[in-house]
Amino acid sequence: MSQSIELDGFSRTFDSATGPVQAVAPTDLRVEPGSFVALVGPSGCGKSTILRAIAGLDREYEGNVLVEGRPVNGPSVTRGIAFQEHRLFPWLTVEENIALGLQTTKLERKRRVKDLLDLVGLTRFASSYPRELSGGMAQRTAIARALAPSPEVLLLDEPFGALDAFTRLQLQDALQEIWQRERVTALLVTHDIEEAVTLAQRVVVLRARPGTISDVIDVDLSYPRDRSDPRLDARRRQLLAHFGLVGPGRQAANG
């Protein structure tokens, strides 16, 4: 199962020492059920603000945030979320972290955890503690935990931002497989343009504060994505052009 996400006139203003600061201007957005959408833009454009509102972690906004046509009134097991920091409980093992919060029978919980350990490639580390894991393994555990209740929506807030480049590429490939297997609606916040075009079917480009949507780019390529595909490079260059990073005298670069 998967669910739609909709922002209708969403805006967010924060108080500061110098007065109100509008982080996101009135914005409309629809994410279709089962699709993979990435939000990209400079720091402070409201990407994570939008994600937190959809997760139900922030309700101090104007406008409407709807999931499957219903207002978001708080966190829900139907919406899993993974952050840049893995936020695992250090006193629990990998399998215990994944199982945390599962309201099922012991047998069903065991089966679901076993399935997720296999899905994220951590079966051998089921009894390990977070301190014994690499950064990539900890993030795999965090994603598995987010998927454990079988959510209809998976929210990803820079989940690979703190990892080294090689591990990040590996986990991007793993996430493609996980999304295809679970078929949830995925919404990814990232600063990494290469990551956005590799993973998403649509890339929503936000401009700087107050955050507004400046463009939506379709990446209508099959999965798994081939990073050497010239069509993928064309989308990447299109995104880079939005930020003035491609043009006469400019060298294309990731990020």
Can you offer a commentary on this structure?
- By secondary structure, the chain is α/β, with parallel strands linked by helices.
- It has a domain at 1-78 and 154-159 and 189-255: Rossmann fold.
- Helix content is 31%, strand content 24%.
- The chain has seven helices and ten strands.
- The strands form two sheets. Strands 6-7-8-3-9-10 form a six-stranded mixed beta sheet, with helices on both faces. Strands 2-1-4-5 form a four-stranded antiparallel beta sheet, covered by helices on one side.
- It is globular.
- The two termini are 33 Å apart.
Secondary-structure blueprint:
Blueprint: E1 5-14, E2 21-31, E3 36-40, H1 47-55, E4 62-67, E5 70-71, E6 79-82, H2 94-99, H3 106-119, H4 135-147, E7 153-157, H5 165-182, E8 185-189, H6 193-199, E9 202-207, E10 212-218, H7 230-242
Parallel strand pairs: 3-8, 3-9, 6-7, 7-8
Antiparallel strand pairs: 1-2, 1-4, 4-5, 9-10
Helix pairs in contact: 3-4, 4-5, 6-7
The percent of residues in helical segments reads 25-40%
Q: Mind telling me the C-alpha Rg?
A: 18 Å
Mean pLDDT: 91
Number of strands: 10
Primary descriptors:
single chain, 255 residues, Rossmann fold, disordered C terminus
Quick take:
The chain is of the alpha/beta class.
